[in-house]
Amino acid sequence: KWRRGVGWDKVELHIENLVPGLVLGGLLAAALPSSTRIDKALTLAGGAFFVAASYLMGTIGNLLARLLLDTVSRHSLRPVAIILLTRDKLKPGERRFKDMAARYSKALDAGLTCGKPLIETEVAKRRTTGRLLRSCLVPGWVALWLVGSSRSWTGWDLAWAFVAEYFALLVLYAYAEVVVFREGLRGERVRAA
User: Fold this and answer.
1) What is the pLDDT of residue 13?
2) What span, in angstroms and rounded, lies between the C-alpha atoms of 174 and 193?
3) What span, in angstroms and rounded, lies between the C-alpha atoms of 123 and 100?
4) Rounded to 5 degrees, what are φ and ψ at 86?
5) d(CA 166, CA 164)
6) Radius of gyration of the chain measured on its C-alpha atoms
7) Of 49, 63, 78, 126, which sits most exposed with the smallest number of CB within 10 A?
8) Residues near 165 by beta carbon (within 8 Å), at least 6 away in sequence
């Protein structure tokens, strides 16, 4: 009965927000001077606060990563990667760079709603892989900042490290989207049959 009043059945925790947030929380706690570290995180209240703060940091980090990786990938690397890596699966008229965002969405929708649970589950798993990959951006930057500050990197060294990590994740994320697209094409074939 108490569950109805609190609404716990409506609480949704997304692992793609919690995991990077826990990593960020741990990294930021490690960056604090030892006199201000969160040493009481093992207590119930401290642990609950740490998880809640981590979830919020993970959510904000994921929104930032989505803005920086997803938007750029959609308009640059994803269409190029799809055209290059799925050339044999696309009709000649479907290989136009400017139409690739709509083509990707169509294939993704088909993969998620084709009626074959095996394909739908595979598309959902591949999307989750891409999301988890995308969620590495901000924790990676924090980790680079910690390493750089412990090794006396200059501002330029840190900037180059941040840019290198960003572009590495952008390439990997675009490839993950190609994998999702290929699975979505399987869904299209099932729908057409």
Assistant:
1) 64
2) 29
3) 18
4) -130, 25
5) 5
6) 21
7) 63
8) 137, 140, 141, 144
